[in-house]
Fold:
Amino acid sequence: MPFLGYPRLILEEPLPIYAALPELRARLSAGSLVIAQAPPGAGKSTVLPLALLNEPWLIGQRILMLEPRRLAARSVAARMAHTLGEPVGQTVGYHVRFERRAGPRTRIEVVTEGILTRHMQADPGLEGVGLVIFDEFHERSLDADLALALCRDAQRHLREDLRVLILSATLDADALEAALDDPPIVTASGRQFPITVNYIASDPAGPLSIATASAIARALDEHTGDVLAFLPGMNDILRAQALIAERHPDVAVLPL
Structure:
């Protein structure tokens, strides 16, 4: 389906954040600071920045998006670029420690905390930036709080037109709302799926890896679909992987 306002952007499936986009757009158009709450998997990190690219107040300007971790920064940038059908470094890029993939065409640049802080120290007015997004703000860190304080200072004294969007899944929005002069909060609901729970009859005896492998093998024998299992350490994971491979050589076992 075509996506709001960006002709090249196609969504494979509407995500929960999609329903909140009209209100988010209206709030950002009317004010300088907005908080958005959405559960994991709602699409807030990879849909919102793309959906805002053609906003009138963002024409000719860029989005800086803060991600707390380097792996997340690369992954979010790669997902957005893939959605646009482009390689990373064109419309969407990233800048992490010792690595930057961005160019003159980049409209969205995903950065890590130290990068954003140094950027703002070198350019307090954030020339050419129309929106700063703080993703996963519930993780909280000194660098993220400092960057937010610098953005608020820039809004008050240098850039009344600068927008700030705070994204979070589990943030105490009421406390943050009070600390930031009561900005609007936009909430997106998650999706729910039916779940059937089956328990092993009793506490397993013997090594945990053997009990887990047996339970997984039984699930594969009795049900269709995939299996997600959690074990406490790499040794147990590798032992269970080997045992499952013996019983079900046709099943792809992917340790994380």
Notes: The chain has eight helices and ten strands.
